[in-house]
Amino acid sequence: MTLAPAAAPAARQEVSPALVLLKARTFIALIAVVAFFSFAAPNFLSTANLVIMAEHVALNAFLAIGMTFVIVTGGIDLSVGSIVGLCGMVAGWLVLNGVEIGFLGQTVFFNTAEIVGITLLVGVLVGVVNGLLITRLNVAPFIATLGTLYVARGLALLSSDGATFPNLRGSAEWGTQTFPLIGAGTVLGVPVSIVTLVVVGLGAAYLAARTPLGRHIYAVGGNERAAALSGIRVNRTKMFVYMFSGFCAAIVGLIVASQLVASHPATGETFELNAIAAAVLGGTSMSGGRGRIGGTIIGAFVIGILSDGLVMMGVSSFWQTVIKGLVIIAAVVVDQFQQRLQQRIALQRQAALGR
């Protein structure tokens, strides 16, 4: 009896410790900043401070979630900060002044729910403009959203001649007395902004991981031409991500105006930088095709805790800006290193299988 030689065992896929650490870098960074500020900043872990930090993180997380989808498609949205300011001014205008209908000689006032709906629609419409510029006129995302950044900020300034809309406490007569609850209210003791973030975050994560649209978003970022040849409607997918980014920015505009009980046209300046930093730090690749909502939210916590911790330590706001810039640069460099390491490991496995 002749025995046939045993089949060669399948090549084992060795796990690279360096790659594991790189993939977990956001969580490691979160633990590091929490540990550092726990010792360096007094009362950092107090309940009151943790609640305040969570509310601050929520604002950046909303923008970062929308930014993640945009960056995954290979784009960028520089207009989100200006959309925050514009939407805050729209909400303030509606609460204080309503909408005057000239030919009827009357002023229409809206209740809180209607103001929220109109404000969110404004954010989505700015996203539509971004999407049309990029998909129909083939304007580069950086230039298109840079243009709308200035347009939206200019409209916010024009709405009040650069002044603040104060005392947005609303009126029981018009049903707007609940407007301050958007930013200051609680649900079972949890701030409304945090509850809203949980809802939006879970919805975005489900969309990204479990729906055809989510798969299309990643496919467009991975290889736009291949996605188009496979039947994916690339332009519609891009339109969605910019509309969703505008929607998230409008939420932030509403929350900030409600928390301050006032709206100012300069609100949201440099917010886009924090959003990009959180997304990139959370593992979203600037080259597109890769990113996770969970990682982005952890990245937002890192940026938020870093900002608040530096304030508690008395660090100058100028140095805070420098540090955030360095964080963005470091995150991109680490991401590039991770991609090269993954490619090298993939080539090594192919060579091992070919032997």
TrEMBL record:
**What Pfam families does the database record attribute to this sequence?**
BPD_transp_2 (PF02653)
Please name the CDD domains in this protein's record. Answer: TM_PBP1_transp_AraH_like
Write down the InterPro entries for this protein, in alphabetical order.
Answer: ABC_transp_permease (IPR001851)
Q: Which organism is it from?
A: Aureimonas pseudogalii
Any one GO MF term held by the record is: transmembrane transporter activity
Q: Which residues cross the membrane?
A: 26-45, 57-76, 82-103, 115-133, 139-158, 179-208, 239-262, 293-311
What keywords tag this UniProt record? Cell inner membrane, Cell membrane, Membrane, Transmembrane, Transmembrane helix, Transport
Q: What is its main location?
A: membrane
Protein localization: Cell membrane
GO CC annotation: plasma membrane
Q: How does it sit in the membrane?
A: Multi-pass membrane protein
Highest taxon listed in the record's lineage = Bacteria
Q: What is this protein called?
A: Erythritol transport system permease protein
